[in-house]
Design brief:
By secondary structure, the protein is of the alpha/beta class. It has one domain: Rossmann fold, CATH 3.40.50. The chain is 34% helix and 21% strand. It has 9 helices and 11 strands. The strands form 2 sheets. It has a 9-stranded mixed beta sheet, with helices on both faces. Strands 8-9 form a two-stranded antiparallel ribbon. Helix 1 packs across helix 9 and helix 4 runs antiparallel to helix 6. The longest helix is centred in the middle third of the chain and has 19 residues. It is globular and about 50 Å long. The termini are far apart.
Length: 295
């Protein structure tokens, strides 16, 4: 049964979990948070690398309190997913874009038919939101990026060290069969194919996916949906140059940008992850932008 969570404004909210089955029978759970009043807008949210969907429940609840329904995607290999990266289990961007996201989005659309659909994401989730939107331009009303940007090494301070890290993760993940992110303190335990696609974009500054014939760079350039890009003042993992590198791949898309500071996060450091604990300001900016982005 959905859990009812009354809030101190005009909306109360409900949370329900839906089972998602991808094209290859991989299973996961989609967390759906909705206002009790019928929503006019819904956002499908993509987590950062290695972060389970449930950690975005505060964001989803804050958005639902404004009347926006939110579906929280679960990445393959993380959280409720029935797959785990190993020598026998491997995947990359292609499976995420062609199998997992379509299955989850179909479930969310069945739950909330007839609403405006927005796609959002955090960090790698923001990047893959852009890639998915570039391949399904008619399905997306707009893109919301939070603490996201290209991983291109030239966009970072100490870029040479980051480039070296990109060069090392591939042989390490192939040696072990997966990247032991939990052990090394970066991401989750990630599939070697996903790490290959991610690190390639980090080394070259360009997006491609093994086994996917689509020219993703060309597709990105054709996006015309509005974009809201929120960066965090103290976020070294997604600095302004990284965000701008990603946004510049979509020159036809109207964009709005804002920087979140500690004052908007109840004094917490405005870094890559802290905003998830107090997402009220982020949700408010998302709600205001969604209400006016297409007017």
């Amino acid at each position: 049964m959905p859990a009812s969570l009354p809030l101190s404004n005009t909306f109360s909210i409900s949370t329900v979990t839906k089972s998602v089955v991808a094209a290859d029978a991989a299973r996961s759970e989609l967390i759906c948070v909705e206002p009790h009043a019928s929503p006019r807008r819904a956002m499908y949210w993509l987590p950062a690398m290695g972060v389970p969907a449930k950690h975005y429940l505060p964001l989803a609840e804050a958005c639902a309190a404004q009347g926006i329904a939110v579906a929280l995607h679960e990445w393959r290999g993380i959280g409720s997913s029935d797959r785990r990266a190993s020598r026998r289990e491997d995947w990359g961007y292609r499976q995420c874009l062609q199998w997992d996201l379509p299955a989850g989005i179909a479930q969310a659309k069945a739950l909330w038919p007839g609403v405006e659909w927005w796609l959002g994401g955090h960090s790698l989730g923001g990047q893959l939101a852009c890639l998915y939107a570039s391949m399904h331009r008619d399905e997306v009303s707009g893109l919301a990026l939070v603490a996201s940007g290209s991983p291109y090494w030239r966009c970072f301070a100490y870029g040479a060290g980051i480039y070296a890290a990109y060069a090392l993760v591939n042989p390490l993940s192939h040696l072990l069969g997966y990247l032991p992110g939990r052990r090394i303190g970066f991401g989750g335990n990630e599939a070697r194919g996903l790490i290959a696609d991610w690190s390639r974009s980090g080394r070259t500054g360009r997006y491609s996916a093994s086994g996917l014939s689509v020219d993703l760079e060309q597709q990105l350039a054709q996006i015309r949906a509005p974009i809201l890009a929120l960066s965090l003042h103290d976020d070294w993992l997604a600095p302004p140059a990284s965000l701008n590198w990603l946004l510049d791949k979509m020159p036809a898309a109207p964009r709005r940008s804002a920087v979140i500071t500690a004052d908007q996060l109840e004094g917490l450091r405005a870094d890559h992850f802290s905003w998830m604990k107090v997402p009220g300001s982020v949700a408010a900016l998302l709600g205001t932008w969604m209400a006016g982005a297409r007017t």
